[in-house]
Write a structure and sequence with these properties.
By secondary structure, this protein is mostly helical. The chain contains 2 helices and no strands. It has one domain. The chain is rod-shaped, with a radius of gyration of 22 Å.
Length: 61
């Protein structure tokens, strides 16, 4: 991330800034994909737990 921002500030040609921006976007995209995977897994677990509660009744505590 720091290297790409340095390229944005020091790189005078448009192509280098474009490459830096694209690399930053790809890094953010990977982070968002990981977050989406975690959220989807949490939602699936929650729905499965709800379905199990509906079919088997209240959990015994």
């Amino acid at each position: 991330m720091l290297h790409s921002f340095r390229r944005l500030t020091t790189g005078k040609s448009i192509s280098s800034t474009k490459i830096a921006l694209i690399s930053c976007l790809y890094g953010l995209g990977e982070r968002y994909l990981l977050l989406l995977k975690r959220i989807l897994l949490a939602v699936i677990r929650f729905t499965l737990q709800r379905l199990c509660l509906k079919t088997h009744g209240q959990p015994q505590r």
